[in-house]
Fold DUF2155 domain-containing protein.
Amino acid sequence: MIRILSILLLGLMVPAHPARAQTDPVITATTAPGGVVRWLDKVSGATGDLDLSRGQSGTVGRLTIQLDDCRYPSDGVPTTAYAHLTILDRLASGPVFAGWMIADSPALSALDHSRYDVWVLRCLTE
């Protein structure tokens, strides 16, 4: 009985189809000179856009938003952007956000802040 169970369990671990060769196309990215970040103050309702060059930072209320990098697919449009941001709150000891945000999916990697929302809109191509 144990031998039969072992054979059945091994059969479940073997994939139903042989491994396929990687056929997905390689996606290359273009590094943009800057990007557009939108912010929202959830207390006052104020909102605005920041046009930032790579390495540049802007201040909104208590936040300092720095655009470290902005990229988009070479064969795509700049609105299909993903950007690396570092966001500081003057009341916090360290960054409140440091990482990549994706313009198409802002909730995937969002700033978790009690007062502000920040998200990437697009890359700047000029």
